[in-house]
Amino acid sequence: MNHRGDQLPSFDDRSPIYLQIAEHLRRSILAGDLAEEDQVMSTTAYATTYRINPATAAKAMSLLVDEELLHKRRGLGMFVSSGAQAKLRERGRAEFVDAVLRPVVDQGHALGLSTDELCRAMKEIS
Amino acid sequence: MTGLADLQIRSVTHRFGSTTALSQVDATIRGGTITGLIGRNGAGKTTLARLIAAWQPLQSGSIHLDGHPVWESQDRTSRVCLMKDTGGFLEDQPVRKSLRVHRAARPHWDHDYAMRLLDLFEVPTKKSPEKLSTGKRSALRAAVALATRAEVTILDEVYLGMDAVTRRMFYDELMADYIARPRTVILSSHLLDEVEDLMEEVVVLDRGRVMAAGDTDEVRQQYSSGSSLASLTDVLVQITTSGAER
Amino acid sequence: MSAMSTDRRTTAPQWRVATTLLATEGLRAMVSATAVMVAVALLFYAVARSLGWEFVEARSDVMLGVVADQRSVVVVVASGWLPVAVSTAAIIVAIVLTASRTRMFVSAGFTRRAIMSGTAVTLVLLVAYALVVGAIVTLVLGPSATAGYLGAEGAQVSSLVANGVSGLAFGVVGAVAVTVLFLRFVWWVGVLVLATLSLLLTVTGAAGALDAVSSSAFPWVLWALTALLACAYWAMMRRLPVR
Question: How far is CA B90 from CA B110, B115, B131, B141, in A?
């Protein structure tokens, strides 16, 4: 039973806990801490570790199942689906370009930098 | 989901003399969930709890468990346990005697579990409840409530007398037992910060009316503004103060 | 999930469980009370005899009395004192059981019906216990010992039993009904009802009228009153609120 990726996060009260659990799991999958077919911490374990209702963890799992990142194996628990990391990368990339890169480019342009100058600057800092 | 029956509360109105304690209360407590019953003092939580447990006859409306009224139905009254911060015990008799009654009355009573919990909370069974300290009295009630393994267990401020450490021990025991043997738990507490993450669903009462009900996260989201999620305290403050302005 | 199965037809009916709980508690209390009374009586007898006091059997309404002058002390005792004391204990036990356990049982999940049934059977057992004690005393000491204060003409066993049982039944049921009155309503309602009843009884001379009733009808009057009180008990219990 592989439970890697369990450097336990702490949850704050800024957003629903189930969303935070889901986000943490996504990050773990993306980072490779949770590999394909790795078992995810059970809802019971989440409940006892964080003193939350197991249904909260179940909601997070259910969300990720809908996103095709996790799948359930009857009697065993939740496992990372194959291609999950790839899916997350793809989604992440698309989101990154839209949500992160575009504002950067816009701001660069606003400061008078041309696209080439921006590329040069990126090369320098990489 | 767990196969446990829902508790259907329909149009319950209750008056004590000229005071209306509950007004057209409609709620469904889903079987197998931990549902919070929250509200300010005098909101009607205890009245509703007592009506659910058939401690008081209904004046109007209905409360059904598994499709039938709880009132005077031995099949159902034995499956609903209400534990408050007072009552429920023979005050001047050793705790053991009260345990004998609960053991005989509750179909799913687990005596070993009861003894283990009483030991954990350091409640002496040879003493009578009236001779116990406030903390031990609360612990006694909490322990017995858990040990009844009643299908519907209502905890009405049982942890009032407990110190913070005992409360945490209790929450841990509650969750552990709930996970291992699901039951419907109705939790009424003023210590919202401590229990809000334990509740899957919540019913918010204000002056006898249901102001919000449903998934806890959704209710909290409903009353959130800005970037932070509202706590149940925030929800309650908003609900009750907006009511006062009316 | 199996532990939470809603199919539990295997559980015993509640009235039987309630009966067992109440009856064991009640009879245990009666046995203790009897033992204490007998022990105290024996002790008293031993001490009194060692002081040279004399014991004489009472003839009429006296239960216990002491006649003393310079020369001697004479203790007058009705030889049937034990059945009377046990009957009094039965009434007290009935009150205490009802007062302490009625609401607790409701909160433990018993239906009010089950509690009523359990109480009824327990009361029957308490009366039966007193009857047995009375029977033993009568067998040992003879019928005249118990006859006097039971208002029975002559020493007929049947009239003794009739009077005794009806009287005690009236006593326990009345006591339990009054107890529930205080459980059901605010305390001053109970006080008001009792005060009104006693006032009515004395003013209308009903208490006096009871004396005039022929001894053969007396038990029946008591049974009728007992039935009335039982109905009152039922009426108050069926929707008894628990705080």
Answer: 20, 18, 12, 12
DSSP assignment string, B79-97:
TEEEE-SS-SS-TTS-HHH
**Percent of chain B at pLDDT exceeding 90:** 91
Using CB atoms, which residue from B171, B176, B229 is nearest to A14? B229
List residues bridging with B215 in a β-sheet: B201
**A108 shares its domain with A60:** no
Q: For residue range C101-130, what is the model confidence (pLDDT) as tens digits?
A: 999 999 999 999 999 999 999 999 999 999
Q: Same domain, yes or no, for A69 and A104?
A: no
What ipTM, to 2 d.p.? 0.93
Are A68 and A109 in the same domain?
Answer: no
How crowded is residue B123: how many other Cβ atoms within 10 Å of its Cβ? 23
Residue numbers of the domain that contains A53: 17-82
Tens of pLDDT, residues B59-93? 999 999 999 999 999 999 999 999 999 889 999 99
Question: Across the interface, which of B74, B82, B88 has its CB nearest the CB of C104?
Answer: B88
**Facing residues of C75 across strands?**
C55, C66
Q: Of B64, B61, B51, nearest to B13 (Cα)?
A: B61
Give the model's pLDDT for residue C143.
63
Question: A52 and A103: one domain?
Answer: no
- Residues of chain C with Cβ-Cβ distance to B56 below 8 Å are 241-242
Q: For residue C178, give both structure tokens.
A: 């009054």
Give, in order, the Cα–Cα distances in Å from C175 to each of B195, C181, C182, C186, C224. Answer: 46, 10, 11, 17, 16
Q: What percent of chain A has pLDDT over 90?
A: 56
Chain B, 30 to 89: residues with Cβ < 8 Å from chain A are 33-34
Find the CATH number of the domain harbouring A56: 1.10.10.10
**Does one domain contain both A67 and A97?**
no
Angle CA B212–B54–B138, to nearest 5: 80
Which chains neighbour B (Cβ–Cβ under 8 Å, 3 or more pairs)? A, C
Q: Which residues contact C23 (CB under 8 A, 6 or more apart)?
A: C118, C121, C122, C125
Supply C183's token pair: 């459980």
Question: What are the CA-CA distances from residue C227 to residues A27, C20, C230, C231 (Å)?
Answer: 77, 24, 5, 6
Query: How crowded is the C-beta side of A101, counted as CA atoms within 13 Å?
Result: 11
Q: Do chains A and C touch (3 or more CB pairs under 8 A)?
A: no
* Residues B98, C104: C-beta atoms closer than 8 Å: yes
Q: Which domains does chain B have, with CATH numbers?
A: 7-245 (3.40.50.300)
- Contact by Cβ (8 Å): C18, C118: yes
Residues A93 and A77 in one domain: no
Total number of domains constituting chain A: 2
User: Cβ of B113 under 8 Å from any chain A Cβ?
Assistant: no
- Does B155 reach chain A within 8 Å, measured CB to CB? no
Contacts 24+ apart (CB under 8 A), C71-79: C73/C48, C75/C48, C78/C145, C78/C148, C78/C149, C79/C137, C79/C141, C79/C145, C79/C146
Whether the per-residue pLDDT at A14 is higher than 90: the answer is no
Q: Kindly provide the b/e burial profile for residues B22-48, where b requires at least 16 CB atoms within 10 angstroms of the residue's own CB.
A: bbebebebebbbbbbbbbbeebbbbbb
If we measure between CA atoms, which residue out of B204, B214, B196, B216 comes closest to residue B242?
B204
First to last CA, chain C: 33
Lookup: tokens for C91: 């009434």
Check whether residue A46 and residue A102 sit in a common domain. no
| Pairwise CB contact (< 8 Å): B74 & C13 | yes
